[in-house]
Specification:
The protein has 339 residues and is of the alpha+beta class. The chain is built from 9 helices and 12 strands. The protein has helices at residues 2-7, 31-44, 60-70, 160-179, 197-205, 211-215, 227-230, 239-244, 261-270, and strands spanning 13-23, 51-57, 76-80, 89-93, 97-104, 124-131, 139-146, 183-189, 208-210, 289-294, 305-312, 329-335. The strands form 2 sheets. Strands 3-4-2-1-12-11 form a 6-stranded mixed sheet. A 6-stranded mixed sheet has the order 5-6-7-8-10-9. It starts with a helix and ends with a strand.
């Protein structure tokens, strides 16, 4: 490991990506075909992602299919096991993973709610310590997670206490990484809207920031139909604005898995597409997927800044014509000045 460390040169930029793959076995439509194509999609991206966090990648078969298509530029990877059916989390990296662990959430749904599955999959945080360069603190600690789903809208969501407790747990992990002097990345489907209690807790109790809000501070804090967003009094954004300005990753009109039954049936059975006007209002699109970035303000992390952020994986499967997942990805580029 020491010789490998000495051959590394600290990069001047890091391209990061997070994606919920919607890969539930027996439930997600065209699961394996879509996850194979997600691997192809990652391999075609330019600039290529260098650290990737995946959620809802439940089967090792799907994980290995993605690894096979990305190992030439993401040679290091970890598939994390948890619960009865697995945690669905994976981390891929251009740089060596020196250490990894899976931390289970102590509060995670109810066993009696077997039809929802959150408790049975043992949700938690996939952690990886990745070596970026030769110096002792040339390390980024990556945390990938999928918080408990909201089955009702806040504040009526009966699982809000579970999700808030989980946000506290990952905030503690990220704070610990920062205290070790390491760069910190928190990736995943957090199942929360911006400036919700869980979101504010993460930014208040760990030295990280939501990269989208850093570059788009006036972006939406929920779907246009959400009461908190309505209270801002802003016009309903178009589908195009939802992607470019508000970072929406879920329930977007472009995503075929959010279409009505008739349009989905036309697409999947008859291969007949439905035209979506990008300029029309999108009332339900919201942001649930995040990249948090930060570290000790007086340590090596202070060298790094956010260069860009975008929503990705909006393409369709080339033959099935469906969206690659029921979520879109979030991608960011971090940069530091050269020595």
């Amino acid at each position: 490991m020491e010789s490998a460390r000495q051959t590394l040169e600290l990069p001047s930029s890091i391209r990061v990506l997070t994606l919920n793959c919607w890969g539930l076995k027996f439930i997600s439509k065209y699961r394996h075909e879509r996850l194979v194509e997600i691997g192809n999609h990652l391999a075609k991206l330019s600039p290529a992602p260098e650290i990737v966090g995946l959620q809802e990648c439940w089967t090792q078969k799907d994980y290995l299919a993605i690894r096979e298509r990305t190992k030439h530029f993401l040679p290091y990877g970890k598939f994390y096991w948890s619960g009865i059916f697995g945690g669905g989390l994976a981390i891929l990296s251009k740089w060596p993973i020196e250490e990894s662990t899976m931390v289970r959430y102590p509060l995670n749904g109810r066993p009696a709610a077997f039809f929802r599955g959150d408790w049975y999959v043992g949700k938690g945080v996939a952690c990886a310590r990745i070596r970026l360069g030769p110096a002792k603190k040339d390390v980024v600690e990556v945390f990938t997670t999928h918080l408990h789903a909201p089955y009702e809208a806040e504040p009526n969501d009966s699982y809000i206490c579970h999700r808030t407790a989980q946000a506290w747990e990952i905030a503690k992990l990220m704070r610990g990484a920062a205290e070790r002097g390491h760069l910190v990345l928190g990736l995943g489907d957090f199942n929360m809207i911006p400036l919700s209690l869980a979101h504010r807790l993460i930014e208040a109790h760990s030295p990280v920031k939501d990269v989208w809000r850093v570059l788009h501070p006036d972006s939406a804090i929920g779907a246009a139909i959400n009461e908190a967003e309505k209270a801002r009094g802003r016009p309903v954004p178009s589908s195009d604005e939802c992607l470019k300005e508000h970072g929406t990753t879920c329930d977007h009109r472009y995503n075929t898995w959010r279409w009505n039954k008739g349009d989905k049936k036309k697409l999947l059975k008859k291969k007949e597409d439905t035209y979506i006007d990008a300029s029309e209002p999108d009332h339900r699109a919201k942001r649930l997927d995040y990249i948090f970035f930060g570290g000790d303000a007086e340590g090596p992390a202070s060298q790094w800044s956010i260069d860009s952020v975008n929503v990705g994986a909006t393409e369709r499967h080339p033959t099935l014509l469906c969206s690659l997942s029921d979520h879109f990805s979030v991608e960011t580029t971090l940069t530091r000045p050269p020595h």
